[in-house]
Amino acid sequence: MDTIVTHRYYRPASRITIFAYIFGVIAAILMLVWLLHYREGVDLDSYDPNKIFNVHPLLMFLGLVFLSGQGIHYRYI
């Protein structure tokens, strides 16, 4: 029977990649501070439409900017 040999090549993260991750985490934390302190909170089950809308920028950043950026980064490694 033929043996299938697979090779995995791992490259360490570059300094730019590490800086981008740190910047993304800091941006997410600052967005949470902004939404919780200055925009009066985040709540999906509320009678206040502003609190419901505050979920939108948080999910847009985390989902579309931060996570898709990671997917694009790993696609080209």
From TrEMBL:
InterPro entries: CYB561/CYBRD1-like (IPR043205), Cyt_b561/ferric_Rdtase_TM (IPR006593). Coiled coil: none annotated. It is a multi-pass membrane protein. Its cofactor is heme b. Residues 19-77 form the Cytochrome b561 domain. The chain crosses the membrane at residues 18-38, 58-76. It is found in: Membrane. Keywords: Electron transport, Heme, Iron, Membrane, Metal-binding, Transmembrane, Transmembrane helix, Transport. This is Cytochrome b561 domain-containing protein. The lineage of its organism: Eukaryota, Viridiplantae, Streptophyta, Embryophyta, Tracheophyta.
